[in-house]
Structures
1.
Amino acid sequence: MKVYSIKELLSKGKNALHEEVIVKGWVRSFRSNQFISLNDGSGQNNLQIIINYSQFDTNTLKLITTASAIRVDGVVAESKGAGQEIEVVANKLKIYGHANPDDVQETILQPKRHSLEKLREQAHLRFRTNTFAAVMRVRNSLSFAIHQYFNTNGFFYVNTPIITGSDAEGAGEMFTVTNFDLDNLPKNEEGKTDYSRDFFAKKTNLTVSGQLEAEAAAMGLGKVYTFGPTFRAENSNTTRHLAEFWMVEPEVAFYDLEKDIDLAEDFLKYCIQYVVDNCKDDLDFLNKRFEEEQKQKPKEERSEQNLYEKLEFVLKNKFIRLSYTEAIDILKKSKPNQKGKFKYPIDEWGADLQSEHERYLVEKHFKTPVVLFDYPAKIKAFYMRLNDDRKTVRAMDVLFPGIGEIIGGSQREERLDVLRQKMKDLNVDEKELWWYLDTRKFGTVPHAGFGLGLERLVLFVTGMGNIRDVIPFPRTPNNAEF
Ligand code: 4AD
Ligand code: MG
């Protein structure tokens, strides 16, 4: 007798007829003391188990309730019901864990429609729901595709530290890491906290990006990428921001910004194509969910495309590449700007672009993914390469429909003197980053890279609307439950 996952067994289909099999999973429903719908998480589809109730004692059957965990030993038979080729006729049943129906009633395991908010409140149980399990499997496939893409293209995976002393983005949005007793902080002579007595003998924080360390690695290994958790203490309670998210950061020696954008476009298309090719059942489900969700929205907010069309659209079209300056011109003249519809009106060059502006360009003006480049130096991080105009830097952002910024990257400032000046201008501590400056002293080269927020990509590919629904246990302002 072979133990099968439900996905494996269903994909064998009629080739498995008459085989004696063992399956294990959680009961989704048990109808008429006869039909169990079983799911083990391996895929979107449930396996139907047929119970000949005269064959089992009633006490056992009573324990088979929604959410309980069981093992079935049985024989594969042709299914008479619609929607499935095969089913399993049970010979033996084992109950691992019973679930009390009164308790189940209170949870999202109760088989009916629950809001995504309710699912979030029971995040420890939502892996059992069709929607969240589909998102998790797609997320898994995307992570795999990311490693596969870089691996087949000659990149080395490097692990950068999670605890660091530096603020890679220079934005001051960090969580401090300490083992001080916070109620009894050691003070120095000036009455300030004495970090020299802390665990690392300095002030440390959770990393906001592995980029600076990845740059050091690229200066020896050539092509590298990081893929790990990053932390931002920015107080933005939006559907696109997490305080803890997973970032992928490739870094390549001898690349300029054009090459960097080429890489970003090719990489995104590869990952999306991978999911289209490998996650059909889950995408079918998510597409239906997406279409139903659109129907409930007011007409002007509805997506014209279904999920598959959205994905195909990105795969087929070349991303538009446009300078920040050109984008500002378009935005200035745009209808929403003229009519005062933007929350942040665009009136002059140098303004930081908000998500509403990014989405206008992508969804209304160009109707295709857009890559903006050459941003004002003042609104971007210190490490970006200064252009000859001395006003702009070789930065790029990839903007996606429904998401806004999905990737942020740049060509790096490889000239030591210019980098030093930029750090001075932007108030970045040279002492802390002595080692980063060193990478510009011993065979410095032009190089470039970018960061992709994994959750933003998962959002796009699954058609979900809130970033809290694409990561198992979201960390957001005022929320670190579970
Ligand atoms: O644009 P960001 O801040 O760039 C960096 O961190 C660079 N060091 C990347 C690099 O060049 N190596 O962040 C990069 C991406 C964003 O485009 C977005 O997808 C994601 O990370 N991101 C977030 N995702 C979820 N929640 C947040 N709070 C995010 N902040 C950034
Ligand atoms: Mg950015």
2.
Amino acid sequence: MITSAIVPVAGSGTRLLPATKSQPKEMLPVGKKPVVQYVVEELARAGIEQILFVTGKAKHSIENHFDYDHELLRQLSDGEKKELLAELEFERMQVSFFYTRQRRQRGLGDAVLCGQRFAGQEPFVIALGDSILGLHADSSCVAQMIAAFEAEQACGIIAVEEVAPDMTQHYGVVRPDGTGPLFAIEDLVEKPAPGQAPSNLAIAGRYLFTPIIFDAIRHTKPDKRGEVQLTDAIRILRGRGYRILGLKLPPGERRYDIGNFESYFATFLEFALADPVYGPEVKKRLLELLRTEARLPADG
Ligand code: G1P
């Protein structure tokens, strides 16, 4: 049984300035919820019971978000807005939260290493706090990763997503052995130069590893920006002959990246449109705007 997850949220989010000047990118709203709430709800549904956030400077609002707010609960229960209590139900999730700080910004691999004591001797999930899997986080990917890990002899599984060839330079990219949804990874490279990617299968922000990964991270040399990349640590494991699997996101599921404005805006729109209460009104307004922009007739 895999019940622990490390959620790195230490990145400074400079690509989202000024929105992220004094608030974490993981707390940006996508529709009604902050990004990190989707991530935690996804993990809880996959059977995760304890989560370690690896935080950094100015990330306190994440801790506050997952605390019980007794005063607010009392205020809503006593007042005329009892229906809003449903919006705080996530506070009762059966998940324990732990927090540690990455004291220097030294990359994703180094952030994961901060979770070594938390993970202990058990396999654990890594879920990036700025990535939502599936519309409204309704993804079965982590549950599938856990099932595959338990059935196969591997020391790690990585979720991957097919991306357009001109996007591979923004991600870690794997070289698969075979074409099925679950495959052995031959090799992988972090942010390959344009035209150099070994495939179009990009690492999608969810990983599962045995604690052997920590030793590999310790042996990973920082890149030219001084960052210890998780991808490079996994590459060391491959070099030592460890079996690492890749799992394609289930059909119909996507990864929503809240690391840049283009993808954040598009994700917000998609989630708002899919909101059961507000979606129809947003759609109406959006169609009006698009018609005006395209100078289409009102019924066009
Ligand atoms: C990180 C990983 C990269 C992965 C990406 C999306 O990059 O290093 O391998 O593809 O997340 O999950 P970042 O977005 O932090 O630059």
